[in-house]
What does this fold into?
Amino acid sequence: MSFARGCVELQFDEPVLRASSDPSRVYGGRGWRFPAPGSPELMLYHIGETVDGYDLDPDRILALSFGKHRFVVPLDSDSSGGPDAAHTVGVDANGRTSVLGGMWVG
It folds into this structure.
């Protein structure tokens, strides 16, 4: 997981999910929204978790499920502040992020 100006990046074994709208999460019954105080620390609990499902409503949300926990990226135009709210980037044959590995924009 990386924090960069203007986005939150979740890096899985290969693909990368970049959220340019502020994500939220319910973890252990505790909700938060990035960049609220304490949210970067709570995001560290995602490290090592396995995504076991997702929900996608292209005009509303992308939600990743980690067991009983959820990571939600709002996709609506009011939340994104730009042309896209989130995108994934695959990796090339050398393991570097590249559109050659596939890309999705929401």
DSSP finds two helices and ten strands in the chain. Strands lie at 2-4, 7-11, 16-19, 24-27, 30-33, 53-57, 61-66, 69-74, 86-89, 103-105. The chain has a mean pLDDT of 78.
